[in-house]
Every structure is written in C-alpha cells, then in structure tokens.
Design goal:
By secondary structure, this protein is mostly helical. The chain has helices at 20-36, 54-67, 82-94, 105-114, 133-141, 188-198, 214-224, 254-260, 264-272, 287-293, 308-321, 324-338, 348-354, 361-372, 381-390, 392-405, 415-428, 433-445, 453-460, 462-473, and strands at residues 7-10, 39-44, 73-77, 98-101, 147-150, 156-161, 165-170, 178-180, 203-207, 230-234, 237-238, 304-305. Strand 6 (156-161) and strand 7 (165-170) form a beta hairpin. The radius of gyration is 31 Å and the shape is elongated. The structure holds one RNA strand of 75 nucleotides.
RNA sequence: GGCCCCAUCGUCUAACGGUUAGGACACCACUCUUUCACAGUGGUAAUACGGGUUCGAUUCCCGUUGGGGUCACCA
C-alpha cells in the first residue's frame, strides 16, 4: 500500500508574538514537508475571539517569512470553520458519543472547589449523562443553556509517537471534555481534530506540551471514524534556569532576534540544532543540508536550553562568511536606525574590515558607524583599562603616531605607507609596536578590538583620523 | 496531588551492548598576528543514584531521586 503524500501544519494562535519555540515547531514541520515532498499548511487558530488579533496574525506571518519558512497552503482561519465544528459536535451527540450538559459554570466551579486538590485533577461527575429523556426535553423546552460534552471511553489510548515511541494513556484518567460551548462555538480540542481531519493532515508535529491533549484528540478521531495521523511531539525550549522559556528570560520573540541583528539563516540553523542533530558533528548547515538530513526520529526527547551566546557565535560565522554586498542592505537599515547617513560614501570596504569581529549585524553597523565618524566612539571598559594602565605613555604614544602620520598625504593614505610610517617611528624611539598601535585603536574606536590598526586608519580616512588622534592626545 | 514525559561535560549534542565516552559554544593556555580579533593547537569539564539482565552496560529492564508538561464553556 502506498503512503499518502505527507501533509503537515503549523497552527499558531494569534494571541501574541511568534515565540522561538513556535518558530522551531514551524521549522520542523517545514523541514519535514520539504524533505518528504509533502505539503506545509499554515492554520491560524483564532477561535479565542477575545485574545486573537489581526496584528498578532501579521507578526506571526512576518516572522515565518523572515525565517524563510514558506507555507504551501493557507493561511486558513479556524474561526471560519465554525459550522463544520458544530456539525461534528452534533453528530457525536446524535450518535450517543456525546451528551448535553446543563451544569452552569457556577455549579462546576463549586464542585471543583470541593474536590481534593482545589480543582486540579477535577473530573466531571457525569450527572448530566444520566439525565432522563423527558428531563432533557423539559430543559430544552425551557431554553436552558447547555454545552456538549464528549463521553470519554473507558479504554486504553496509546500511540507510537515519532519522537517518544509508545505513549500510553487510559480513558478513565481523562475528563468528559466540553467540545461545544453553550454559545455553539467549538472548544480547541474539537476544532483541532475537526480541522486536521478536513485538511487531511497526516503528521501532527507540535510541542511536547500537547502530549496531554493527544489522547483526548485520538478519542475524538476514533469517535468521528477518521484515520489517526502520526504524532511527533518535540521537546520544549527552556531558559537558562531550566524553566519554560518566557519573557523573563529576555528575548523570546523571533522579532527580537531580527532587531538584534541575527540573520535568518543563522537563526534557522541554530533553532534546527535545538533538540535535533544530524550526526557526524555537523553544525553549520545550509538549508539544503538541513532538509536532506532531517528526520523526526532524530529529534531529542528531552527539552533543550536556549543559549543566546551560541546563537551569536553561529551568527558571527554567517556574517564572516557573507559578502559585504549581501550584508550592506541590512547594515544600512541599522545605520539609519542609529541616525547615521553615509551619504555618497561606499561602506563596502568598512563592512569587510569590520565583519570578522561582529556577531550581529547591529553590532556590525555600530562598528561601521564609528569608522564613518570616530567622534561616535564610546569608551569601552577595556579601552578605559588600557588608558589607565599606560598612564602618561598613552598620550605620548599618540603624539608619536601623529608625528608619524602627518607627513603622509591624502593620496598616500593607504595601509602600507601608514604601517611603514608607524613602524619607522616606533623603531626610532624604541617603542614596542603593540604600545604604538593599541592607543590608536582605543582612540579611534573606544575598544581594544578592531581590524589591524593601519587598515583602521585607512578606512577612517586621514582628516577624521588625525583630528581624532589630536583630540585624544590632548586628553579630550 | 492525579496522569504523562524526560535524564551524557555549565549549555547544545555524538557514541550496532565492547570507544582513552567524541564534537561544538563558553572558559583557560599557547601559537600565529605590528596590536586586538579571526584562525589553529592544547587543556578543564559528563554518562543522577540503586538494583538487576549480560562475559561486558551511557546503551536493555525495574526502582529511587531530580526536572518538565498538563489537568477550563483558553489555545
């Protein structure tokens, strides 16, 4: 028998930004679809009218596009499918697999309070399941509000999870969940199953936190007589403290990383390696490699801690490997945010000079900005430390540099003559080259890290460089 | 608390039941470099604990401990 072409979906609810955990779930779905020649569907689960917004939907779509995760179908909006959801609920009711429950929220709340754990683990006592037919008719005639509850079968519910292997539950541990509210709108678990059936989803790849929903949903699939898809529950992403990643851990939205100057390719690469590894110690992987090597079975069972430092390292690898022309648009975006206008000046040479040391494009742009205009340089702690350590020698060294550089004309202001002049002066005055160079670097950039000093001087330009050195030599 | 999931360096991870338990980030040292970085080389660092099964357990089984998830007319 032939396997149907895989159909997967990413189904965020538009109640907030695109979380990195959600982004990774989307990425795994996308990788699986690309790998198998399947279809990646985007579904927006907006049945919670109170919390869903159009703005959130846009942020999520933008985030997916930024990451390069193109969907093949959709976005389809769950809220538009209310009639089908209701139809499925009523069908279960008609078939005796669900029942009307007239209990009010207040009644349920009271019962919950009286239960052993203050509501946790509370199970509905099925009092409405046993209502006589004439009583139901009486309440219906009286127009009393009711919900539709699914009658959870007393049987084993297990499945072969693609990442966890066999997971077993039992219906007796599960509540008779409400599937249709008294206002006839569907509850999440029904809407999801109804949609996944209608969309012919074959593989449900989602977060670990849905494991406890899966037995409920499988029971619904069975009751609806639909084939059960393959489930793959990917582990959570945690913060450094081992708790579920959330706002208090800092940046958790994909947009935050975009703003910080993380490249989409690096973000995608990093996220793919959180809970998944291709083997052979491979880490920097192009899109095609990611797709070729991806399998659900290789996904880790345990949660992964999000390490921003490694993300930045990886981003630096991508930045170093990219051509200045490719980086330029992004750098210019950050420059304008910094209020810097390069005017007619080409910034390609500056990008090339600065990119091996930058870990984010925003940091790269800051470095470019300082080279465009050294007066922007802010003294870093390490730069400050160097000045203090050298004492009077700092200014003396700068005086030597100025004396060496002034004779060089505008036309000869290139790395080689600059180096020759500095070297000659240092030799003549028995100055160690390190002591001659480092003060220039600090004066020009405020930092102790940059491209070679002669290249730095060339990139900054004669007039600006000399002016800055004179100012620094005067102690300004 | 019930139910469910999970457990290799600080972190991300590799290891047909047989390896000096490998790689990467971070950290330290050295080399290279006019300085800094990049890079290269080396180093510190892990199989949670206890029982089995086996000639032999990181690996299979059970238990303990620890961590996580979830228990709504939210999604």
């Amino acid at each position: 028998m032939s396997q149907p072409t895989p159909r997967v979906r990413f189904a965020p609810s538009p109640t907030g930004y695109l979380h990195v955990g959600g982004a990774r779930t989307a990425l795994f779905n996308w990788l699986f679809a690309r790998k198998t020649g399947g279809t990646f569907v985007l579904r927006i689960e907006d049945t919670d009218q109170a919390r869903s917004t159009e703005a959130h939907t846009q942020v999520i779509l933008d985030g997916l596009r930024w990451l390069g995760l193109a969907w093949d179908e959709g976005p389809v909006f769950q809220g538009a499918e209310g009639a089908r959801h209701r139809g499925d609920a009523e069908r279960l009711l008609a078939e005796g697999k669900a029942y009307r429950c007239f209990c009010t929220k207040a009644e349920l709340e009271a019962a919950r309070k009286l239960s052993p754990n203050g509501g946790d683990g509370f199970k509905y006592d099925r009092r409405c399941l046993h209502l006589p037919a004439d009583e139901i008719a009486r309440r219906m005639a009286a127009d009393l509000p009711f919900v539709i509850r699914f009658q959870m079968p007393d049987e084993e519910i297990a499945w072969d999870d693609a990442v966890h292997d066999r997971i077993r539950w039992h219906g007796r541990d599960l509540d008779d969940l409400v599937i249709l509210r008294s206002d006839k709108t569907p509850i999440y678990n029904l809407a999801v199953v109804s949609d996944d059936i209608a969309m012919r989803i074959t593989h449900v790849i989602r977060g670990d936190d849905h494991i406890s929903n899966t037995p409920k949903q499988i029971a619904l699939y069975r009751a609806l007589g639909a084939p059960i898809p393959v489930f793959a529950h990917v582990p959570m992403i945690l913060g450094a403290d081992g708790k579920k990643l959330s706002k208090r851990h800092g940046a958790t939205a994909v947009g935050d990383y975009q703003d910080k100057g993380i490249l989409p390719a690096a973000m995608r690469n990093f996220l793919a390696l959180l809970g998944w590894a291709p083997g052979e110690d491979r880490e920097i992987l192009a899109e095609a490699d990611l797709i070729a090597l991806f399998t659900l079975e290789a996904i880790q069972k345990k949660p992964a801690v999000f390490d921003p430092t490694k993300l930045e390292w990886m981003n630096g690898q991508y930045i170093s490997a990219m051509a200045a022309t490719v980086l330029e648009p992004e750098v210019r975006r950050h420059l304008s945010r910094l209020g810097v206008d390069p005017g007619d000046r080409s910034i390609l040479a500056i990008i090339d000079a600065a990119k091996p040391r930058a870990r984010t494009t925003s940091n790269l742009a800051e470095r470019v900005a300082v080279r465009l205009d050294p007066t922007r340089a802010a003294l870093e702690p390490k730069g400050q430390a160097l000045i203090e350590k050298m004492g009077p020698a700092y200014r003396a060294s700068l005086e030597h540099a100025i004396a060496a550089l002034e004779p060089i004309g505008e036309a000869d202001w290139t790395p080689e003559p600059i180096f020759a002049a500095l070297k000659a002066r240092a030799d003549a005055h028995a100055l160690k080259l390190g002591d001659a160079m480092q003060p220039i670097r600090v004066a020009l950039t405020g930092d102790t890290v940059s491209e070679p000093v002669n290249e730095l001087l060339a990139v900054v330009g004669r007039a600006a460089a000399l002016a800055t050195l004179r100012r620094a030599a005067r102690g300004e």
